[in-house]
Amino acid sequence: MHLWSRNGRDRAGDFVAIADAVRALPASRIVLDGEAVAHCLDGLPDFHKLLGNDGKATACLYAFDLIWQEAQDLRGVELIGRRRLLQKALKKAGPALRFSEHMSGAEGEALFRHACAFGLEGIVSKRATGRYKSGSCVTWVKVKNPEYERRA
Fold this sequence. Notes:
The chain is α+β, with helices and mostly antiparallel strands. It is 27% helix and 22% strand.
């Protein structure tokens, strides 16, 4: 079992609760895309806490995509279909593995305003009909909060 970082490091030994939650899923092979998050006392994401041992121990993975399940490569499936499968796969997951909720269409602008008001980094917008592609692509865009500061 591996937890790969975006720069190719296996972090399963660092994020033990997340690794254990993934192992507990009723799938012999599963590949998720998501983001590890540690929370501050107010319940908001805390990037710096994620760097410390306590943050790693209590971090959870917000899963936002399902790339592979059992013998099925899902990269060619539309995002909306992959998300339905992801939600089903995570239905009985422990607290260290969470389905990343989404909003659609016109709700995006309001969601971005709320993210900014809470001091969050921003939002990611994706086309519901997009196929999976790692890295930057035309079917998704990260919209950053111009006032965002990582908490010290």
